[in-house]
Design goal:
The protein has 261 residues and is of the alpha/beta class. 35% of the residues lie in helices and 31% in strands.
Length: 261
């Protein structure tokens, strides 16, 4: 699969040079062009991109503000900065860029940037695969500790609308505290609970349920990904759930220990 590259430059001449050089690099596809850093940021929110090569003239306020938001993207692409002034490199690496290229641009130097991008992406894919395998092995190990003859279906009674609904614990994806109510999310719908989140933490099976955050309890059987957002920040992605669940820094170490990763 070719490396998907977005190029950004304030002047048409720079875009032409970048495009021309990248067309000579194997397995590279220029998927888009923008004239501003903000436009590049918005473009990456709507399209899949592996690497952004951004030509900048100076590091002004707008540029700093835009690039500081780069790490906030849900799936931030790698970023390489091109500039005529080498003294801008210090600022660039503060933003966590993959590479800083000093003009004039040369094909061999740009090929080096592309190679670095491929190596970084391969490393990220490998790390993600290792985490997923460890997570799967640990959950299977936990589940395997209980034989078929000892399985008991546990229910959580939820009161509401003149009836009591018995929810199977295995069907609970996660629980969330919202202001004055606690919501329980299942594949079949959302239930409002009279329990506090602390009370639920005491009732649910601690083998499978984990307090990921003061506002969330998750069923570990539904966890499919643990995403690192840098500086100790993580989110959990669950099967059957479209939103990301916050994993607090203080609980991240406990979860890694619990899952053996």
């Amino acid at each position: 699969m070719p490396l998907r590259v977005l190029i950004t430059a304030p002047q048409e001449r720079e875009l032409i040079v970048l495009r021309y050089l990248l067309e000579q690099v194997k397995a590279v596809q220029v998927v888009g062009e923008t004239a501003e850093a903000l436009a590049a940021l918005q473009w990456c929110q709507e399209h899949p991109v592996d690497l952004v090569i951004m030509d900048i003239l100076e590091v002004d306020h707008d540029c700093r503000q835009t690039l500081s938001k780069w790490a906030e993207l849900k799936q931030a692409p790698l970023l390489a900065i091109v500039a005529a002034r080498p003294e801008l490199a210090a600022d660039a690496y503060d933003w966590g860029v993959l590479d800083f290229v000093v003009k004039p641009l040369e094909l061999k130097r740009l090929e080096k940037t592309v190679t670095r991008a491929r190596e970084r992406l391969h490393e990220q894919e490998r790390m993600q695969e290792l985490v997923e395998n460890k997570l799967r092995e640990r959950i299977e190990q936990i589940v395997g500790q209980y034989s078929e003859s000892h399985k008991v279906v546990s229910f959580l009674p939820v009161r509401g609308k003149g009836k009591i609904t018995l929810l199977k614990e295995q069907d609970i994806i996660y629980c969330e505290s919202q202001v004055k109510k606690v919501l329980i999310f299942t594949p079949n719908g959302i239930h409002t609970s009279n329990y506090t989140l602390n009370e639920l933490a005491g009732k649910l099976n601690e083998t499978y349920f984990f307090r990921a955050h003061p506002a969330f309890i998750v069923n570990l059987n539904y966890v499919k990904e643990i995403l690192n957002f840098g500086e100790g920040s993580y989110v959990l992605r669950l099967h059957g759930c479209e939103r990301d669940i916050i994993l607090s820094r203080s609980r991240a170490k406990l979860l890694r220990h619990k899952l053996g990763i």
